[in-house]
Design brief:
The complex is a heterodimer of chains A (238) and B (536). With 238 residues, chain A is an alpha/beta fold. Chain A has a domain at 2-83 and 155-237: P-loop containing nucleotide triphosphate hydrolases (Rossmann fold). Chain A has 9 helices and 10 strands. Chain A has helices spanning 40-48, 69-75, 91-102, 106-119, 135-147, 165-180, 192-198, 216-220, 225-237; strands spanning 2-11, 14-24, 29-34, 55-60, 63-64, 76-79, 153-157, 184-188, 201-206, 209-215. A 6-stranded mixed β-sheet of chain A has the order 6-7-8-3-9-10, with helices on both faces. A 4-stranded antiparallel β-sheet of chain A has the order 2-1-4-5, covered by helices on one side. In chain A, strand 1 (2-11) and strand 2 (14-24) form a beta hairpin. The longest helix of chain A has 16 residues, at 165-180. The relative contact order of chain A is 0.18. The chains are: A alpha/beta (238), B mainly alpha (536).
Chain lengths: 238, 536
């Protein structure tokens, strides 16, 4: 579903992502962990097609992000770490805007909006301006808008930040449901317990380089993910 | 405590000059000098206008009515100070971003309010100096004033600022109360700003007749000021050299400021910590109409426009002015036709007929430059740029939607104005076509110019939409660039080409130039412009 090959991105003299390669299969929830500034967001933004990269290739369902950006974007959804949405719209206007861009027909969109907005407890607020929403409500709206066109791949940058425990639980269930239906999710998180419980595979990135990846069992063995992560971080410091 | 708060405000002010907040970098020494010179130029030009105001009165009022001259100068200073500071006062007192943070610290709210009122005082002092110093200097020179009188004048200036600050704080407080009860804040802001502009321009255009009335009714005005505006009378006397009167005005100003401080301190905490009332609606599902991606993008641009008072007021004044001009033309149609008939009687009919389409075309082009909707349109994406870029969109469609907003909001009002011109001035079909073509192509030209400028100079790091709309190179290029084009072409015809070609030939050439320039800019937008947007 997602193939990242030798991805490299530099900002001036700083190499944010250095020769990173990852493969994500349909049905997988892939966790992406690393310290602040490790290159997680840069990688996710490059995959989402909103940031150019210097070397390497990214394929989504066999299509190159560089060569066929619009086609790739049709198959994916991206949820950033900070849900900066169009504050001049109401929630429902925003969802309809996204549905229009993806060409979701009125009946399908109505069904999906109702299903997800009701699940996240946001349906009653959809007529209100986004500017009146709390951070958590905006995050919920960003998640609903990401699901409205039933993407094959969802990219999420710290998706649980700002969500209440109920919404976090709901999101985890939805993520599992999407992957069980053949979709794939690539998400970054600092909450290692969540990654450990939710992910099928995990990749650890440090200073832009991939230092460990594989199934959860391969990466952590008998230890906890936290122990493995801290150990790898200490190796860097040593 | 107060000293620390004032130091913070001072540092914030200095930071605005020394640092480029958009880039998050320190300005170069040359940048600081240029910015300071721009401010200086602005201050000097405003001061020059007030010098003109004093020149209009000085010979009539001096030396016999020195106090009245001073009272008039300070009255002008008071009005300028209030006009210039009332909305900023509201923001300074009640909408400062750091208020919540400071209130979390062990700072008494009264001290915080006092620090903010001192900031307002410094702001009104700046207006007071710019607006009254030219009149004072004019007075000192004319009257060959002693050092004592000069010192009294300076003290009067400082005291006027205190009085104005207190008055401005009351108005700021009233604005806070009104804002609280306005259901649609965007519409309220637009209406209030337009009303403010209308009052400002009416006052500006009527100033000469106001002054003439003052001169004609000097005695009654003198009596009126003495009887009803006692502080102004004392201020006038004090600034003209009467120390005791100035002392009385000082007591009045200080007491007024103290009372305002005491009154505002009782409500300050409540207003600052209040959360704005939001009218919540409960959503009921309705079947959406499918728009397609271009329709969705155009709808998004319209919603952004309607949701942003700064965008509406700074980017679309032409949309309002053109229908207003059309109505005005229809109302005054008889007078205009009378002038044209008179010119015909004087044998100028043929000349008028030849020049009329060019003059009308140029006028409509000029009014249409008041619309600059594409110039900030890329910058306005701001923090939501990720969204636009992450969607499966052809960038060209996105850019076309931005141009479409500009065209719809400018071409339709322009057509209304053209229709009014056609009816009132009884234009022939060919004349209508010529005026229409020139104006409409010029509107396309501005739209492309603004978008191109914004693609070259986007400002995506703003904290307030006004920054993106007003303080950007692209907006300046769009407005002043289009003015320059009109002025240069006009000058070219008047000074060089008038004897070589008819106005109609020149009009056709100008229309052709606009068309070619527009096509070239559109080609750039569709290729390099798209590339630049994708790289943002």
């Amino acid at each position: 579903m997602l193939k990242i090959e030798h991805l490299t991105k530099t900002f001036g003299e700083k190499t944010a992502v250095d020769d990173l390669s990852l493969h994500i299969q349909p049905g997988e929830i892939y966790g992406f962990i690393g310290h602040n500034g490790a290159g997680k967001t840069t990688t996710l933004r490059a995959v989402a097609g909103i940031m150019s990269f210097d070397a390497g290739e990214i394929y989504i369902d066999g299509k190159s992000v560089r060569e066929q950006p619009v086609e790739c974007k049709r198959d994916l959804a991206y949820i950033p770490d900070n849900p900066d949405l169009y504050e001049f719209m109401t929630g429902i206007q925003y969802l309809n805007f996204i549905a229009d861009i993806f060409g979701v027909d009125p009946d399908t969109r109505a069904e999906r909006i109702h299903r997800y907005a009701d699940t996240f407890g946001l349906e009653k607020n959809l007529a209100n301006p986004i500017s009146s929403y709390s951070h958590g409500m905006k995050q919920k709206l960003a998640v609903i808008s990401a699901l409205i066109h039933a993407p094959k791949l969802i990219l999420m940058d710290e998706p649980f930040v700002g969500l209440d425990p109920m919404a976090s639980h709901t999101l985890k269930e939805i993520m599992r449901g999407i992957c069980d239906a053949g979709g794939a999710i690539f998400f970054s998180t600092h909450v290692l317990e969540v990654a450990e419980k939710l992910c099928d595979k995990v990749a650890i990135i440090k200073n832009g380089r991939l230092i460990k990846s594989g199934t959860m069992e391969e990466v952590k063995g008998d230890d906890s993910l936290e122990e493995v992560f801290l150990e790898l971080e200490e190796e860097k410091d040593a | 405590m107060l000293k620390t708060l004032l130091k913070k405000d001072f540092l914030s002010l200095i930071s605005g000059i020394v640092n480029d907040r958009r880039k998050g970098q320190r300005r170069s020494a040359a940048g600081v000098v240029v910015l300071s010179l721009i401010f200086l130029l602005l201050f000097v030009s405003v001061a020059a206008a007030f010098l003109g105001f004093s020149e209009m009165m000085i010979d009539t009022l001096l030396p016999d009515r020195a106090w009245l001259y001073m009272a008039m100068i300070f009255c002008g200073g008071l009005i300028a100070g209030l006009f210039g500071s009332v909305f900023t006062t509201y923001t300074t007192l009640y909408k400062a971003k750091d208020s919540q943070m400071l209130l979390c610290m062990p700072i008494p709210p009264r001290t915080l309010l006092l620090s903010k009122m001192v900031t307002v005082y410094l702001m009104t002092l700046l207006f007071s100096v710019i607006s009254t110093l030219p009149g004072l200097v004019n007075f000192w020179i004319k009257m060959k004033s002693s050092v004592g009188t000069i010192l009294l004048g300076i003290a009067a200036m400082l005291l006027l600022a205190l009085f104005t600050a207190a008055l401005s704080c009351i108005l700021g407080w009233l604005v806070a109360l009104v804002v609280r009860h306005i259901p649609n804040k965007n519409a309220g802001t637009v209406i209030a700003t337009l009303a403010f502009l209308i009052v400002y321009y009416v006052f500006y255009f009527k100033i000469t007749s106001i002054l003439q009335n003052i001169m004609l009714n000097m005695s009654s005005i003198e009596k009126g000021i003495k009887g009803y505006v006692y502080p102004l009378y004392k201020l006038g006397l004090g600034a003209a050299g009467d120390g005791l009167s100035l002392l009385i005005f000082a007591a009045i100003s200080i007491a007024f400021f103290a009372v305002v401080y005491f009154v505002l301190s009782r409500t300050f905490l409540g207003i600052v910590t209040r959360t704005d009332k939001v009218r919540t609606k409960v959503y009921t599902a309705t079947r959406a109409r499918e728009k397609g991606s271009f329709g969705a993008l155009l709808g998004k641009e319209f919603r952004h426009f309607l949701g942003s008072p700064a965008y509406m007021l700074n980017g679309a004044l032409g949309t309002l002015l053109m229908p207003v001009a059309a109505v005005f033309l229809i109302i005054k149609g008889g007078d205009v036709r009378g002038i044209l008939a008179m010119l015909q009687l004087e044998g100028l009919g043929e000349l008028v007929g030849e020049y009329l389409p060019l003059i009308l075309g140029a006028a409509i082009c000029f009014i249409s430059t008041m619309n600059a909707l594409t110039a900030p349109s890329i910058s306005l994406e701001g923090k939501t740029l990720w969204l636009t870029k992450s969607l499966p969109l052809d960038t060209r469609a996105l850019l076309r939607a931005k141009q479409a907003l500009h065209l719809l909001l400018t071409v339709i009002p322009a057509l209304i104005l053209i229709a009014a011109c056609a009816v009132v001035l009884r234009l022939s079909a060919v004349q209508i076509l010529r005026v229409g073509l020139m104006s409409i192509i010029f509107i396309f030209f501005i739209s492309a110019l603004g978008l191109m400028a914004n693609l070259l100079m986007p400002n995506l790091k703003w904290s307030n939409e006004t920054e993106a709309v007003k303080r950007s190179g692209s907006a300046l290029i769009s407005i002043f660039g289009s003015w320059a084009v009109i002025i240069i072409l006009g000058a070219l015809y008047i000074f060089l080409l008038r004897d070589r070609m008819s106005p109609l030939t020149f009009m056709s050439i100008a229309t052709g130039v606009f068309l070619v320039a527009t096509v070239l800019m559109d080609l750039w937008i569709e290729t390099k412009g798209v590339q630049r947007f994708n790289e943002l």
